[in-house]
DNA sequence: TTCACTTCTTGCCATATGACAAGATTAGTT
DNA sequence: AACTAATCTTGTCATATGGCAAGAAGTGAA
């Protein structure tokens, strides 16, 4: 089997995870490249997620509409991130989120069946996925704590430090709701920082 | 095997879950009763959780100390709740929380080994536990959204409606940090509501 | 280029919440 | 009962953030 050049991205993503080259030969063919156009939905509220994605390039957000009708960005994804709604994919629960491409995207998609098959048969894959889940859970928890304990400026500065590419490529209104503030406030915070 | 009267609580907890009586005869003996005194720690930051608990009676909170030294209550538990730090118990990651009894408590404890054994061998137990995990994940997500979208008064009113026993039994300073505000503000909100 | 549309910034004012400190109330202990 | 400590309330004032609207800047399409 000659290596598909297109799969270079996947090789890079997995190579740091302790998965052997032999295992990669099983894993990587399960993924197929898929492109989303700007504003396409990867998943809509109420659906059950039947696949999930690695983002090779582009930006994606998940959002909810709260009880007052506000659009709140819940997560922002970019290259090398995994887009997965765990309750949906693990427990077949209809998702409560909308997941939408903010830009044109190149993604690598895997079906739920392939995922589950590898999850149960390849220990190193399972460990890698567990790591992603823990990371996701921690991130959610940290974000929640940050909403309580930090002021908006600090949350923005942290995002700026940890994910500058997000700030450069995502509109401020989405970043603002993700940080728990309005775009007006975010604009003022940015002005203050630049001085 | 005659039924232990002490296990009446466990029978009630499991009976609504679709687990058969035969299975209960396997499951319930794995739990042992354990009492915590007020202020005892069930788990301290940095430990790896090796057991988890159902609360029969009493109140428990989990909290973190944030980067500024603030004590922030992350979750509040009461009768019939499960106290479990999923990243810790599933992935052997040291917990980032402290879990402490707020009152004297009667709990039912199960070891990690017994838990895992039943998780893999008893399908209905696994499903029940998955349900608890999904519930916990959703609750965290909803709480996070609420911190962004709702004002403090609404968050308090929701807690009051959904968990009045928590409000009656937990000190306001812990409820306040759980809701993302100070005890001073919470006191004012309560006054406003009572008028 | 021009036009429409979205995004971003800014001004003005309102308000929710925080910080701090002093009392009032309650609970726990001897 | 009496004492101490913890908890809760309240006052005063400061400030972070929101709401709204207008204008500026940027983007995309014909």
Low-confidence stretches of chain A: none
Please state how the strands of the largest beta sheet of chain A are arranged side by side: 1-8-3-6
Query: Approximately how much helix is present in the residues of chain A?
Result: 40-55%
Oligomer classification:
homodimer
DSSP strand (E) fraction of chain A?
A: 15-25%
Gross morphology of chain A is: globular
State the major sheet of chain A: 4 strands, antiparallel
Work out the radius of gyration of chain A: 18 Å
Number of strands of chain A: 8
Mean pLDDT figure of chain A: 90
Q: Give the end-to-end Cα distance of chain A, rounded to a whole number of Å.
A: 57 Å
User: Helix count of chain A?
Assistant: 9
String of helices and strands of chain A: HHEEEEEEHEEHHHHHH
Q: Which chains make the largest contact?
A: A-B, 30 and 30 residues
Decide which structural class fits the backbone of chain A: alpha+beta
Outline the structure in words.
Two copies of one chain form a homodimer. In chain A, the strands form two sheets. A four-stranded antiparallel sheet of chain A has the order 1-8-3-6. Chain A has a four-stranded antiparallel sheet with strand order 2-7-4-5. The model of chain A has no long low-confidence stretch (mean pLDDT 90). By secondary structure, the first copy, chain A, is α+β, with helices and mostly antiparallel strands. Helices cover 49% and strands 21% of the residues of chain A. Chain A is built from nine helices and eight strands. In chain A, a hairpin with a 5-residue loop joins strand 4 and strand 5 (71-77). In chain A, helix 4 (112-121) crosses helix 5. The N and C termini of chain A lie far apart (57 Å). Chain A has helices spanning 8-15, 21-27, 86-91, 112-121, 123-149, 152-162, 164-169, 172-179, 183-194; strands at residues 32-36, 41-43, 51-57, 60-65, 71-77, 82-83, 98-101, 105-111. At the A-B interface, helix 3 and helix 5 of A face helix 3 and helix 5 of B.
